[in-house]
Amino acid sequence: MKGVLELSGGRNYEIAATPGAVAAPPPVPAVSLVALARIVGLAFLGGLLLNLMPCVFPVLFLKGLALCRSGTKGRRELCAHGLVYAAGILVSFWVLVAVLLGLRAAGATLGWGFQFQSPVFLFLLSGLFFLLGLSLAGQFEIGISLTSAGGSLAAKQGYAGSFFTGVLAVVVATPCTAPFMGVAIGYALAQPAAVTFAVFTALALGLAAPYVVLTLQPAWTRLLPRPGVWMDVLKQAVSLFMFGTVIWLTWVVAQAYGAALLAVLLSSFLLLAVAGWFLGRWPAKRWATVVAVIILAGFVFVSVAAPKKLGTAAEAAMPAASPTAQATWQPWSADAVQRALAAGQPVFVDFTASWCLSCQVNERVALDQPQVMQAFQAAHVVLLKADWTRQDPAITETLAALGRSGVPVYALYTPGQSDPELLPQVLTPGIVMNALSKLPQRTTPASGDSSNQP
């Protein structure tokens, strides 16, 4: 049995009643210049708002340190740093999009933020932030290459640091989907490559714009305090945000792959601490640098080998439902949606992931609130959680059919309507309850009706 999902714009997609069976979308229509201009504008706004998302905060603090040191730089050098930072963001977005389109062309089903579905990537990224935290806390001075400038060599390192910080901003920003980004990304990935790159270029420019504007207006930076001893205190304070990011990443590993991989990751942090100790204890000794590099190579080896050895077993041992999908929330499947709608029950689907901070905030601020859960129960809504923490082709295809390519996505299905209502990516209890109030009233629940049984 097949249903038809009609999206805005008049496009219809067939959805099979079997779990995860979503038919491929029809050929992409011709690109409208008006629609493209609108999407590019949304992408730029989404990039601007991305600077306010919690996943980008650690990198913003790094740039804050750089701005506080800007009093020692000339206007031309300051502008150059801003442009190099923007170049790092642009190049990183282009590389990510090229990889994503290339893998999709090869037959892979991937969406935005796909790299966070790899335990190897999570290992390496958490190790990077752990090292940055150790450096900012004062164990060794590798962090100086990100924020300082002074002779010719230091200036080169400073430009490299600006570029690297732009790369890092993109890496940590990909698990977040700011308002306006969902529509832009979903549209872009369904269009020809040239349009896709145009949209993501606008997104990158929006992310880079605030810092670039500050560097192009040096007078504004004079409002910042002058460099001094207090900078060391600020660096140590910033390290707390780095370690907080490490805690989040290790939690993601534990949620997705279990305690075995978590134990390996925590143990590997000891290797990084030893490497940092060698760099800090003997900063000018080549042999100490060699030892640190060997230890870091060992960490990279563990990051690649451990998930391959333990990841499959850990995944098999994990329960089918997400740890947060208990009692009320049930695991998503296309078949569960069809069964509930056939029984006359509305369905609310939370497309989420452990590595998506916006998802976690929305769940705690809105979806898990008592008044919202009571409204779900009163409306006899079936609650399904589509956990995209690990790669799931069925979820990826369904997101594409909804015109999205990443999480969070919140879809409210109503019996008799083929087009679900997509709620905003930033939720409040009022937004959810307002959507539920529009559902048709049911006087008598169906036999065996329960809001937690799809």
From TrEMBL:
A GO molecular-function annotation: protein-disulfide reductase [NAD(P)H] activity
Primary localization: membrane
UniProt keyword annotation of Cytoplasm present: no
Enzyme class: oxidoreductase
Protein's membrane topology: Multi-pass membrane protein
Membrane-spanning parts: 35-62, 83-106, 118-138, 159-189, 195-216, 237-254, 260-280, 287-306
Localisation per UniProt entry: Cell membrane
Residues covered by the Thioredoxin domain: 312-441
Superkingdom of the source species: Bacteria
Keywords: Cell membrane, Cytochrome c-type biogenesis, Membrane, Oxidoreductase, Transmembrane, Transmembrane helix
GO terms classed as biological process: cell redox homeostasis; cytochrome complex assembly
CC per GO annotation: plasma membrane
Enzyme Commission number(s) from the entry: 1.8.1.8
UniProt name for this protein: Thioredoxin, DsbD family
